[in-house]
Each structure stands twice: as structure tokens, then as C-alpha cells.
Amino acid sequence: MSNEIFESSFSTDLLKEYSDTTRDAQAAALQSGNAFILTEDIRKLIARIPNTTVSTNALERFTQETRTALTKAFNTNSLIVADEATLYGKLAVKLAQVSQEAENDGGVVINLDRFIDNPYLLKKSYARLSMGRFGTSSGEKLRERLGDPPLREQISEISSSLKERGSNKVTFIDDGLSTIDALEPYVTIAQKEGWQIKQFILGVGPFGEGEWNSVPEAKKLSEKAPFVVLPAKNPLDWVCQRDVTVFGGKMWVKNQTLVTTPYFYPFSNGASASLPSEKLIEISKSILIANINLLNEINLNRTLPLKFLDCMAAGYGLPASNLETIRTPNPEEYIQTYLEEALNTL
Fold it and tell me: Which of 161, 210, 283, 288 is the most exposed place for a label (fewest CB within 10 A)?
């Protein structure tokens, strides 16, 4: 699929469904608007945690349980679950392609997502940039993710590499863009460093009207039209699966510690996932139970139950409520025990 706004490799095998009829309805929802998109990433999320394995059946069960929870708020035909292997597989293939192009023209491909990877990359034309928007007492600030080098250091290394290669061209690859303001960090850094944006490679690419017109705005900033795996016209919302786990959510700084606020109660009011207030508790309870079931499966394969400290080593923050409805855990606590405590708040 291609048009003047973007290139795309979209196909219905990207939609995690077992009915062709439902897939067709969901594909139509992506083109007409108001789809709720959940991008599956639970396998890659768990794979980053040291000494942690879990069965495929347990991961599939978790996806099905979270999807079922969300159908209490969103119609089956408009609730899109993007298959993890297909989405990230397509991004990995495109990453290798643009990396080769950058090798030829002296540019650098900058990967902004922790879960996009390809083992056959040309190192001179490839870089990772770990950053995110963190809430602070004085507003949102751009900084490195937990466990990664300082943001300024990462940016300087990329600029030095470009200088050595005699180029200023960069290609950004990410799991997607949300609203238009998500482009601001790319623009700010590129302008400050003198980088020329060649192209955006995106998993989810919204287009349409208002704040969701992200892909057309990205096109204005780059030489080539963005490449989009999953284009979506005027979506209701897009949420990464990690954000409905205890490992993800909105990042912020609390008492000089990096923490995250998952998109469900008792950690938040669910607004970041467009959860309706009248169904917040019901949906959150189902999501919490799905998390507890997953942790139980993980712990079956461990000598000791999983602690928050284990996950912090993988770059995940401590969960913290912005509603003050539950305490922030100690890094040494067992995650499953804490989740059971969270369930008791409902």
C-alpha cells in the first residue's frame, strides 16, 4: 500500500484474530476511524528480564485476558490487537533495509524502540537512542530511560559518528507515533544537532485530523514519505501492551526515583488508555488478574519469585500511583505479592 502521505506494508495477518470476518471488519475500522489499537509486545518485554522464561501458552493467555478486559469498553470490530511477531518482524526487515541504504549514503539509522532489533545490522550505520518523556514537578522533561547512558552522551556519539561518515542524514525507526506532539523530540534534537531527517519508519502511524494527523506532519519534516506498518485513520487511541502491565506506563520522577504509572487502577484513572470512568474498576480488576496469572507462570520457572529489582535491571521502573491509592513498592519486594495487594484496593 502506498499513497502521497506514506508507504506501508500493511496486511491483515498483522491483526491478531482467528476469524477472517473479524479481521476484515477491523481492517475497515483502521481505514474509517475510531479504532482502539493495542500493540502486543509481552514476549519482548519478558525476554529482557534476566533469568526469566515463560511458556508461549502463558503469554497467549495474557494477551487474550487483557484483550477480553478491553472488550468491556471497546467493540470487538474496533479493538485492534497487532500481532507482536508480525509487527516487529516487519520492522526488523525494514530496519535492515534502511541500514544498508544508510551504509551507502553515509547516514545513520536511529532506533528509538527497545524491542525492535535485527542481528544482521551494519554497525557503522546504526545507533540506538534511548529516551522518553518523564513527568516532573516542573513539567515533562526529555531524558534517558532507566539504566541507559545520559541522553546528551548518546546524542553526541551519534553526531560524532555522522561527522566521521561525512553526512548529516538520519532515519528514525520506532514502534509508532501517537499524537502530533510526539514528533517534538525528533524535531528539537535534529535541529539542534544539524541532522537532516531522511525518513521515519513506524510501527503504528496515525493520520487524519487534529492531534492524530501525525504521519502527514512527519512527512513535512523528512525527505521521504514515512514507512508505516500499521496505518490508522483517526484512532480512538493506541496503547502498547506493556502499559497494561505492572512493568510499563507513563514515566515520571518521584522522590528522585524513576517510576512508571500503568494505565489502569489503582495506579491511574485509565485516561491514558481512554478507559471509560464508569468501567474503570471492572476493567482494571480483569487486567490485574491477568498480570497476577502471568507472574504466577513466570515464578514457576524461577528459583525465587520475581522481584521489582530484577525488572529494574531490565530498564523497567517501579510502579507508582498518581492517585496515591497504593504505595510505591520497595525494589526488593516480590511483584506477585504486590499485585495481590493492588487487587485488594479495588
Answer: 210
Q: Could you tell me the CA-to-CA distances from 252 to 179, 256, 287 in Å, in that order?
A: 19, 9, 22
- Exposed (0-12), middle (13-18) or buried (19+): which is 186, by Cβ within 10 Å? buried
- Residue whose cell numbers read 507515533: 177
Of 200, 213, 138, give the one whose Cα is nearest residue 171. Answer: 200
49 closest CA partner among 318, 281, 323, 311? 311
Positive/negative CA dihedral, 237, 240, 246, 251: negative
Domain boundaries defined on the chain: 33-78+238-343, 88-231
In sequence order, what are the residues at sequence separation of 6 or more whose Cβ sits closer than 8 angstroms to the Cβ of residue 302? Answer: 51, 52
Give the whole-angstrom CA distance, residue 190 versus residue 173: 14
Structure confidence at residue 1 (pLDDT) = 42
What is the third-level CATH fold of 88-231?
Rossmann fold (3.40.50)
- CA 106 → CA 99, 198, 200, distances in Å? 10, 12, 17
The letter for the amino acid at 160 is S
Question: Alpha-carbon distance 287 to 126, whole Å?
Answer: 37
CA distance 37 to 52: 28
Range 203-220 average pLDDT: 96
Looking at the chain, how many residues does it have?
346
Q: Which three cell numbers stand for residue 269?
A: 484513572
Q: What does the DSSP 8-state code read for residue 330?
A: P
What does the pLDDT look like over 301-329, one tens digit per residue? 999 999 999 999 899 999 999 999 999 99
pLDDT in tens, 222-236: 999 999 999 999 999
All 3 cell numbers of residue 115?
A: 524491542
